[in-house]
Amino acid sequence: MSLSKLSLPSNRTIVMGIINVTPDSFADGGRYDTAVTAIERGLEMIAEGVDIIDVGGESTRPGADRVSPQEEENRVIPVIQALAAAGAIVSIDTKRSMVASAAIQAGAKIVNDVSAGLSDSQMLSTVASLGCPYIAMHTRGNSKEMNSLATYQDVVAEVISELSARIADALAAGITKDNIVLDPGLGFAKEPEHNWALLRNLDALEALGYPVLVGASRKRFLGTLVGSDNPEDREAATIALTGLLARGGTWGVRVHSVKPHRDAIAVAGKFA
């Protein structure tokens, strides 16, 4: 199914809600680490007007350890099945082709890969065979090494160049252009000043001709700005950023809460 056939709104920024079925994710680790709590949270998101629910079973925070493919599947498949049955558009947040395939079979509609195919040589061909939308995020290295790779002469130009190479590989593998979404990868191999530069120049990334998803929710660079090490203290800053992105016409935001961001997008719409 192509992105254009998912019945997502085209007149406003979409809201992708995050559900980490993990004990160690940076913002909500352990809060939804069982199928029961994750499904309950997903149903709450549906009631609050979420557009896509992004389900992940492996933390991608800097320094995170990997889990086995089987453990990752065990965490996400029951949640995907339940939320898809409840009518949600579900995306699978994974770097593994076998998990992506199992998730689509379980009812997910989108593959969200923070490695843009670099972690699994079979990911791009697998997504092409599945015929589903694919979110390709910019990063460098794995979770253990990404912070040491946050060195740029021109972060905007380099991220665009590196994502362009991933797009070329995705297209060569058979993923159609209308199924590709780009994510600048805020916080992944990037220091705060790199994130702000990318946010100020999103139009340069959008000029590549693909929808852009921004995942800034509660991240460390917002904590640096507002002076808090507690991810939940960064929520107000995240909501403010969502309003600015929505006013600028950004395709989507990936966030931990739903209603406050839907409200911010609604307010921004009154300035259009």
From TrEMBL:
Pathway(s) served: Cofactor biosynthesis; tetrahydrofolate biosynthesis; 7,8-dihydrofolate from 2-amino-4-hydroxy-6-hydroxymethyl-7,8-dihydropteridine diphosphate and 4-aminobenzoate: step 1/2
Cofactor(s) the record lists: Mg(2+)
SUPFAM superfamilies reported for this sequence: Dihydropteroate synthetase-like
A family per Pfam: Pterin_bind
EC number of the protein: 2.5.1.15
Key words of the record: Folate biosynthesis, Magnesium, Metal-binding, Transferase
GO molecular function, one term: dihydropteroate synthase activity
Biological processes per GO annotation: folic acid biosynthetic process; tetrahydrofolate biosynthetic process
GO cellular component, one term: cytosol
Classification via CDD domains: DHPS
Enzyme class: transferase
Catalytic function, reaction form: (7,8-dihydropterin-6-yl)methyl diphosphate + 4-aminobenzoate = 7,8-dihydropteroate + diphosphate
Listed transmembrane segments: none
Pterin-binding domain mapped to chain residues: 13-266
Record-linked NCBIfam families: DHPS
Name listed for the protein in its UniProt record: dihydropteroate synthase
Organism for this UniProt entry: freshwater metagenome
